[in-house]
Design brief:
There is one protein chain. The chain is α+β, with helices and mostly antiparallel strands and 681 residues long. Helix 2 (18-47) packs across helix 10 (311-347). It has three domains: 2-49 and 263-433, no CATH class; 55-257, no CATH class; 448-672, no CATH class. The strands form three sheets. It has a six-stranded mixed barrel. A six-stranded mixed beta barrel has the order 14-15-20-17-19-18. 41% of the residues lie in helices and 21% in strands. It is built from 18 helices and 23 strands.
Length: 681
């Protein structure tokens, strides 16, 4: 009862200063709401790092080069061997990202998607909202014409039509039947960005072991460890190596799938730390307000002491006021965090998994108590020792100047220290961002527009591909404001290196490395602004009947011909034909955070592929030309799959650390791309 009377007295006291109380509650509510929201994100990542039923049993399985130590995706032959002979996995599946040309409106649109086996969805425990998922029989069909679509695709493109099952869509120019709608998963898994899924069918079985493009996912049986799984797969790989010479030199690498999200947890912890530091600044400001308010109550406090109140009684009273303010701020902060979550989920449905549970409520309560003690204790300690003589000499109205000066000094210094820490961190972030945008990329980034283009399957033959991309470059060069145009199979800053076997004429050893095999048209180096150190660029005469040629970057020249002139030397890549080196190109960065990797450029006419990036260099601002680029390409081929054109600034933003944007969804390595439904190129 005594405590309740004290709290009622604290409420009456605060009611006498409504502006002060309201200010404190509003500021604390916002600070605690933000802290609670960030804390809930961190706890979701820690407690459930993947949005699937059994994340601790999920394994990501890759192939590891035993000599060089780098890892790569798995080939279909290796995956099939693991799947058929392994007994340690409850399910084993595979997927390969692709881009599909989906026609659901007036014109085709390029959408992100993937090919997948039935075991892939069973491994993840990923259910369908409507219809069914893939079955093993769907993989065995020579030309399976069925698809799954994501819940987001179903809602945004088909208006949540409950009769979508059985509907026929046009995918890559061919009819495909929708058999299911995949339930939404939280966006921190990149699978959440895929809109269309097709079966990974038997054409993949004809791919050789060097064609490593499959992401293999396995669900371990209960009680089985990752080391045990790796040992069994290693034994299976050794047995395969004895039967197939092409299987030697590679072994399995089994990694807990939760590790792929481990890099994001520290980022959110840093964010949580920043919000807590901001909350400390709020506490310091409120403590200053409280101290100023208490300084006007010293006469009241002196009278209470004179009437017999002890120092501890005064301290408890002022602390109750602080805790009362903090508790009210915490209550409204939690409600504000809940409302903020609803707004976020309404805008981004993939965030529905974030929940304000009992742990978040406990965090809010703890923060409220600590905050109340932090901004209530200092004024309470200062006010509990009033200078009665000073008060009498000053007329008993206000606190003498020396009282509370030390407390004010400590609060001001602490607030400045926290502010300097935050500003320093902000400065480092800004510096990193500026450095990324001014990093040496190896090509000219100004006034550059790029668009991913894939020919329809019926026009994807080698002669058609060569003719189309030559005509497309000529057509784009005729657009007003365009300086030059070219086509290339992979854009810089896209990452996505792949294993390459490099043979040098006259040498017996075969080098395996992680590098880039880039197909380009003759105007590529001029359009991109990539300098040639020595030699010549590609010409129209470098066609299918001409001697095979290749341009290497400086990294390749230094690796294979240190101190020598590589012009005229011959090289063979991954068992292909021998090619003569005709030039050395400047190194081009594939990742702003890493040095340039080995890169080999091949003329498009000698290795025509149906999926390329059209690159346009403009004389002026690129923004007004983006629509024209897409329109000109569609006019040349109505069934063309054209992704939304991007500027280089958008590409750099998409490849910044910890960043994701719609641009990044299209940056799939060439060896993970497919021009057709139900098969891979």
């Amino acid at each position: 009862m005594e405590a309740w009377r004290e709290f009622k007295f604290a409420i009456r006291t605060l009611a006498k200063s409504p502006a002060f109380a309201l200010t404190c509650v509003v500021v604390l509510s916002v600070g605690i709401a933000v802290s609670t929201a960030v804390f809930s994100v961190v706890m979701t990542l820690v407690k459930r790092p993947l949005p699937f039923p059994d994340p601790e049993r999920l394994a990501l399985i890759r192939e590891r080069n035993l000599e060089k130590g780098f890892s790569a995706h798995a080939s279909y032959a290796t995956f099939a061997n693991w799947r058929d002979r392994s007994t340690i996995f409850q399910e084993l599946g595979a997927t390969a990202p692709v881009a599909f040309n989906l026609s659901s409106g007036s014109e085709p649109e390029s959408v992100g998607g993937a090919l997948a086996t039935a075991g892939f969805f069973r491994s993840l425990g990923w259910k369908t909202l409507l219809g069914r998922s893939f079955a093993r029989e769907d993989e065995l069909a020579a030309d399976s014409r069925i698809v799954l679509i994501s819940q987001r695709c179903w809602e945004q493109r088909f208006g949540s039509d409950p009769g979508i099952i059985g509907t026929t869509l046009t995918v890559d120019g061919k009819s495909a039947t929708v058999i299911g709608v995949l339930a939404r998963i939280i966006g921190r898994s990149y699978y959440a960005g895929y809109e269309v899924w097709a079966p990974l069918t038997r054409p993949m079985e004809r791919a050789n072991r060097e064609d490593r493009r499959l992401e293999v996912v396995g669900l371990l049986k209960p009680g089985v460890g990752f080391v045990q799984a790796g040992a069994q797969l290693d034994a299976i790989s050794h047995a395969a190596a004895e039967l197939e010479p092409g299987a030697t030199g590679w072994g399995p690498q089994v990694v807990p799938m939760t590790q792929i999200m481990a890099h994001s947890v520290p980022m959110y912890i840093v964010l949580l730390t920043i919000t807590i530091l901001l909350l400390l600044i709020i506490c310091a400001n409120i403590a200053m307000l409280q101290l100023a308010r208490v300084s006007g109550r010293h006469a009241e406090i002196a009278v209470r002491i004179a009437l017999g109140a002890t120092r501890s009684h005064i301290i408890r009273h002022l602390l109750r006021e602080g805790i009362l303010l903090a508790g009210t701020g915490g209550l409204f902060g939690f409600l504000l965090a809940a409302a903020l979550r609803e707004v976020l989920v309404a805008s981004v449905p993939e965030l529905a998994e974030l929940r304000l549970d009992a742990t978040a409520l406990g965090f809010t309560a703890l923060v409220s108590i600590v905050v109340g003690l932090l901004f209530g204790l200092s004024p309470a300690l200062s006010a509990s020792r009033p200078d009665l003589n000073g008060l009498l000499k000053s007329g008993g109205g206000t606190l003498p100047a020396k009282v509370g000066g030390r407390v004010r000094f400590v609060l001001v210094v602490g607030e400045m220290a926290v502010t300097v820490t935050l500003l320093t961190g902000l400065g480092l972030l800004v510096r990193t961002f500026v450095s990324l945008h001014h990093a040496e990329t190896g090509f000219h980034t100004e006034n550059l527009v790029m668009a991913s283009v894939t020919l329809p399957m019926e026009h994807a033959g080698s002669q058609n591909s060569t003719a189309f991309f030559r005509q497309a470059a000529e057509r784009l060069r005729g657009v007003a404001g365009v300086e030059s145009a070219a086509a290339v199979s992979a854009m810089p800053l896209a990452g996505g290196g792949r294993p390459l076997r490099v043979e040098i004429e006259g040498r017996t050893d075969v080098e395996s490395l992680q590098g880039h095999y880039t197909v380009a048209t003759p105007e590529h180096f001029q359009t991109m602004g990539i300098s040639l150190r020595r030699g010549r660029s590609f010409r129209l005469a470098d066609n299918a009947v001409a001697p095979a040629v290749v341009i290497v970057n400086q990294r390749v020249a230094g690796l294979f011909w240190p101190g020598l002139d590589p012009i005229g030397k011959r090289v063979r890549l991954s068992g292909g034909e021998w090619r003569s080196v005709i030039a050395i190109a400047n190194d081009v960065r594939q990742d702003l955070m890493r040095a340039a990797e080995p890169e080999f450029y091949v003329p498009h006419a000698q290795d025509p592929v149906p999926s390329m990036w059209m690159v346009v260099r403009t004389r002026t601002d690129t923004r007004h030309l983006i629509t024209n680029v897409r329109g000109e390409l569609r006019a040349l081929e109505p069934g063309l799959r054209v992704a939304a054109p991007l500027t280089v600034d958008e590409v750099i933003s998409a490849t910044s650390p910890g960043r994701w944007s719609p641009a990044s969804a299209f940056f799939v390595p060439r060896h993970c791309s497919s021009p057709c439904l139900g098969s891979t190129a």
